[in-house]
Write a structure and sequence with these properties.
The protein has 284 residues and is an alpha/beta fold. It contains ten helices and eight strands. It has an eight-stranded parallel barrel, surrounded by nine helices. The longest helix is centred in the last third of the chain and has 24 residues. The two termini are 25 Å apart.
């Protein structure tokens, strides 16, 4: 069943937990997310990221996500992750997504505010919610892009976050406090004071991007500090990739069929994301 983002955020607030949000750029991943959520009887957020457009066009994968969510036995929100321009956010809303993120974090502040307001206005017309971002995580959603040794330069500024929320009317705020997209080359050092200081100024659900690869202790602390949505993709995808490699190697000189390998990938990702969901929901 399709549920609104704010319904899921209310659930997270009531249970003092975070809702897992998974990118689903292919059918195997989409199936893994829905089946895992049903097996765990848990709400979940299915996402499509604009950066995945070259190999997973939203016109193809979007309707499949909507159909799967409608048939699901658990509440599922359909969210656009890292919409990089207003037009793409509008495409997602037209397809049936009921939540969108406009990521203007790399733009000049006033430009970020102006464009976010446009997305909020469009979303309100169809009853959808909007996630915005202040601060940045260096690497983009596929784990590529600039890195910086001075992490504080991209942390979310609490005062700016408060101003941004007042001017735009967003529903959720993505905070930068030390996480990064992609694989971690070293243990991330998270600054939870950023979350606490932001939450002291705003009363919105906070979102953790780059959620793969964080320690259980840090997940717990982040949730206690106000995180209510955790984006998780890289390590789930990595689990699927490693399962694919093992399957191909096991075949030696035998034929390798994609549909069989796809099922192996599905199983591996489902197990990985069930572990993530259990942690975020406090069931592990």
């Amino acid at each position: 069943m399709i549920a609104s983002m704010m319904e899921l955020m209310a659930y997270a607030n009531e249970h003092k937990c975070a809702i897992a949000a998974f990118n689903t750029p292919d059918i195997a991943t989409l199936r893994a997310v829905v089946d895992a959520a049903e097996e765990m009887d848990a709400p979940v957020i299915m996402m499509h990221a604009q950066v995945h457009e070259p190999f997973a066009p939203i016109e193809y994968i979007g309707p499949a996500m909507v159909a799967a969510a409608k048939r699901a036995k658990v509440p599922i929100c359909l969210h656009l992750d890292h919409g990089e321009d207003v037009a793409y956010c509008l495409r997602a809303l037209e397809i049936g997504f009921n939540s969108v993120m406009f990521d203007g974090s790399t733009l000049p502040y006033e430009e970020n505010v102006r464009l976010t307001c446009q997305v909020v206005e469009a979303a309100r017309k169809v009853g959808a919610s909007v996630e915005g971002e202040i601060g940045a995580m260096g690497k983009r959603e596929l784990g590529t892009g600039a890195e910086t040794e001075d992490a504080e330069t991209i942390y979310t500024d609490p005062a700016l976050a408060e101003d941004y929320i007042k001017k735009t009317g967003i529903d959720l705020l993505a905070c930068s406090f030390g996480t990064a997209h992609g694989l971690y080359l070293k243990t991330p050092k998270l600054n939870f004071d950023v979350l606490k200081n932001v939450l002291a100024r705003v009363q919105l659900p906070l979102v953790m991007h780059g959620g793969s690869g964080v320690s259980r202790e840090d997940y717990r602390t982040a949730i206690a500090s106000g995180i209510r949505k955790i984006n998780y993709f890289t390590y789930m995808s990595k689990a699927g990739g490693e399962a694919m490699r093992a399957y191909v190697q096991s075949r030696e000189n035998k034929p390798v069929y994609f549909y069989e390998a796809d099922e192996v990938v599905y199983d591996a990702m489902k197990q990985n994301l069930k572990g993530a969901m259990a942690m975020f929901l406090g069931r592990d």
